[in-house]
Amino acid sequence: MAKSRRIVAPISVFTLIISLCATMALSTGQALAAGEVKIGILHSLTGTMAISETSLRDVVLMAVDEINAKGGALGKKIVPVIVDPASNWDLFAEKAKELLLKDKVAAVFGCWTSVSRKSVLPVFEGNKGLLFYPVQYEGEEQSPNIFYTGATPNQQLIPAAEYLMSAEGGNKKKFYLLGTDYVFPRTANKILKAFLLAKGVPKENIVEEYTPFGHADYQTIVGKIKQFAEAGDACVLSTINGDSNVPFYKEFANQKLTAEKCPIMAFSVAEDELRSMDTEFLVGHLAAWNYFQSINTPENREFVKNFKEYCKNHNLPGGDKRVTDDPIEAAYFGVYVWKKAVEKAKSFDPAEVTKAVLGMQFDAPGGPKKMDEKNHHTYKPVLIGEILADGQFDVIWKTPGLVKPEAFSSYLKH
User: Fold this and answer.
1) Where residue 103 sits, what CATH number does that domain have?
2) Is the pLDDT of residue 74 over 80?
């Protein structure tokens, strides 16, 4: 017995010390990991869509910094994982899968074009991920794995067309539907055509035309628009996306077409795109959105100031000359909706977070908003703005309150 005690005791003490050290090291490592949660940022930082999408990355990072400065989400530091799908629609799906399966992100904030969103949709549905999509789009979709914080057609396209047909909008009778050749413009114009025909506009008064991404030669098309608008009762409904807007508006001015003769109502041109354009000849043209930087409230002024300071302090291109716009606001409040839902659900699990988002009311820079109780879309106001010489918009029309989102247009047969 004495021999046994003499051998066992030293070994047990040594083993206990080694075991305790190993346990402490393991626990420390687990504590560090447990103190963080990853999110994905899936926006084009190069290619034709970088002109629009880079700012969405920037504002998501700003929201993350703000939230982390106040203790994070559920007490965890949010760690953003940034990828660049480079305006390559197939690469969007690859990068989305990488974020979900390799990086194990709790949610993804990203995409702009509908073709990029449709590319990643099966990835999110197949892997039970969660995407917050911040851009106005054509509708006709309702995924349980996507929250749409941008507008549906009844929150942008239809009100804009109604405005142009009204006395206030110039009693327009002819409509030139011009867009980039992909999902959003084609479906948007299908809805617009159905609406215009339902309102009695003759087929011959509706022209539809498309150009590829990155298209730069608009001389012939603008020539046709000029002829179409000779009587002064025509307008352009533009779903041109990305950097093609620069040569389009430039050619419009070159051919002496003005907002008085033929106004352009844009659905994809906002303050951020106007930073890269010569606005001198764009004065008076229109855009329909759900937010403008010029909204004059304390909350929005603070948001604009903070974004400018963030860009300056992080040495981002443009610095404090940067602007805010509709997709930027939608990308920003999407992060806060996710954070609020996480804390309501007390979980980062996408299924639990989804339940918490439905029906949520919240404040955004542009004013109060609400997530629909069922269809994953957002109640928003509708505003029409007129381009000013400084690249901002004068809000000339708005709805009296929030407009309920229709995921599927009532003007299409389903």
Assistant:
1) 3.40.50.2300
2) yes
